[in-house]
TrEMBL record:
All copies of domain IspG TIM-barrel, residue ranges: 15-254
Tree of life domain: Bacteria
Primary enzyme class: oxidoreductase
Keyword flag Cell cycle: no
Metabolic or biological pathway: Isoprenoid biosynthesis; isopentenyl diphosphate biosynthesis via DXP pathway; isopentenyl diphosphate from 1-deoxy-D-xylulose 5-phosphate: step 5/6
Name used for this protein in its record: 4-hydroxy-3-methylbut-2-en-1-yl diphosphate synthase (flavodoxin)
Catalytic reactions of this protein: (2E)-4-hydroxy-3-methylbut-2-enyl diphosphate + oxidized [flavodoxin] + H2O + 2 H(+) = 2-C-methyl-D-erythritol 2,4-cyclic diphosphate + reduced [flavodoxin]
Cofactor comment text: Binds 1 [4Fe-4S] cluster.
Amino acids binding [4Fe-4S] cluster: 272, 275, 307, 314
Length: 385
């Protein structure tokens, strides 16, 4: 039981599958994924984009394979990147087989759309032979005709039925290494479909609000929809869909997960909106500070507050705190305690220095703890011999 039960999220129990080396479902951390928007056949541009995506912290990347050349390009792409690739296929079963043969770790394909039973069998065989998992991706905008006729319009029940129909095909082929998504651009529809699916099966769920819009509107819409799902424990892997740079999608996904304490990565800055009481330019400081701290991956909290109204209280809860004081004499807090004052100095440069020092200290402690654990395990193994 946690000390603060109001912060506890009980995650839905789901089966564990793998996308390459990344576990999805079970007790695995909720993985973050995005999708490239380069031409897959332009290997150089695609690899460069994936490397930026990796640096932003993505665990998985999806790459479109609309033609044979793209599916074959995966061979070279996957050699030059560190994170596993989900090949986005849609209809053509041959592309799925080629992608599996050329390094994809997961195939995004709906078995009900592949065609004949022979083709489904061949795709499943390729997935099994090459250690690929599959994502069934149901989309409200492309529901099967019979379901639209049965239900009259895209609705949660139709989406769940579609997902379970596809799932049954894979189950019939003794293939259970799959995850499912039921996306819609309508938040109500997407949330209700995921809630229904979460009740109906224990497969891991890839959650997302599809075609959510541009950076600002899409972030808000995704945060509402995915926030509701994550808060209720639903979701094993997440993609935020934005008409924006994929790196933004990764950053937004992390902010969501960080807000709900589901993942921790990098510096979380807590800052006030500023007002006439501010003793330094809070907005400008935070803007530059966030850019200069983007390289830090160690989880840490930093509060940057314009004056003493809320500064000391926020600083108590953060690793490093900064509160504006009169006459340009600001207060710096370390581990919640007042530590030193800062007068007429470069605030951002000072805080970046403190964060880097703290990050190095945390990483060194982690490495030391890992070394001690390894020594203990080695000693236990020796004793057992
Ligand atoms: S903490 Fe101070 S400066 Fe910031 S918004 Fe509140 S009163 Fe204004």
């Amino acid at each position: 039981m946690t000390v603060r039960p109001y912060r506890h999220i009980e995650r839905r129990k789901s089966r564990l599958i793998h996308v390459g080396k990344v576990p999805v479902g079970g007790d695995a951390p909720i993985s973050v994924q995005t999708m490239t928007n380069t031409l897959t056949t332009d290997v150089k541009a695609t690899v460069e984009q994936i490397q930026r995506i990796e640096q932003a912290g993505a665990d998985i990347v999806r790459v479109s394979c609309p033609d044979q050349e793209s599916a074959l390009a995966l061979r070279q792409i996957t050699r030059e990147i560190a994170i596993p690739v989900v090949a986005d296929i849609h209809f053509h079963y041959k592309r799925a087989i080629e992608a599996a043969e050329n390094g994809a770790a997961c195939l995004r394909i709906n078995p009900g759309n592949i065609g004949s039973a022979d083709r489904v069998r061949d795709v499943v065989k390729a997935a099994k032979d090459h250690g690929c998992s599959i994502r069934i991706g149901v989309n409200a905008g492309s529901l099967e005709k019979d379901l639209l006729e049965k239900y009259g319009e895209p609705c949660p029940e139709a989406m769940v039925e579609s997902a379970l129909d596809h799932a049954r095909i894979l189950e019939d082929h003794d293939f259970l290494d799959f995850k499912i998504s039921v996306k819609a651009s309508d938040v109500f529809l997407a949330v209700a479909a995921y809630q229904g699916l979460a009740e109906a099966c224990d497969y891991p769920l890839h959650i997302g609000i599809t075609e959510a819009g541009g950076l600002r509107a899409g972030t808000v819409k995704s945060s509402i929809g995915l926030g509701m799902l994550l808060w209720s424990g639903i979701g094993d892997t997440i993609r935020v869909s934005l008409s924006a740079d994929p790196v933004e999608e990764v950053q937004v996904a992390y902010e969501m997960l960080k807000s709900l304490n589901l993942r921790r990565r990098g510096v979380t800055v807590i800052s006030c909106p500023s007002c006439a009481r501010q003793q330094f330019n809070v907005i400008k400081t935070v803007e530059v500070l966030e850019q200069r701290l983007a390289h830090i991956t160690t989880p840490m909290t930093v509060s940057v507050i314009g004056c003493v109204v809320n500064g000391p209280g926020e600083a108590r809860e953060t690793d490093i705190g900064f509160t504006g004081g009169g006459s340009n004499t600001h207060q710096v807090y370390i581990a919640g305690q007042p530590d030193h004052r800062l007068k007429d100095e470069d605030i951002v440069g000072h805080l970046v220095g403190l964060v880097e020092k703290k990050a190095a200290q945390i990483e060194a402690e982690k490495a030391e703890a890992a070394r001690i654990e390894a020594d203990k395990a080695g000693a236990a193994a020796e004793a057992a011999e």
